């Protein structure tokens, strides 16, 4: 089993083990980190066409996603979900707070962990979430084959400056 190399969003390599970082591992980790950042930036409602275009270039035909209780079985279904969510919440804004990538020693697989902040999906709500993108190298280029989102805590609970969500609960909430 290979030992992963971690690279954070500040482009400083962090060694998961005491082994030295190879230049190819660092480049691969930085590359999938930037690809994940691009995909996440394009998940905002006003960027649907960009998300679609990025998917054509960097998403595997076997793509799957999971948002808590919602499973998505294809990139086309993911795009439809993003469009639906954007229509429901046109002011929704997804921002990356921190990102970390790990790549295995043979540079064929990698995982990106994104801590995000979701703003204004209902009223003035601010929520955190962790997004995980799994990548593989296929025919010489990196493609995302899996995405999962885990909702974090809602900072507005108990805070005076945040409003509680008034939206009905739905299994389609990311």
From TrEMBL:
It comes from Zasmidium cellare (Wine cellar mold). This is SnoaL-like domain-containing protein. Residues 155-174 are annotated as: Disordered. Residues 164-174 have a biased composition (Polar residues).
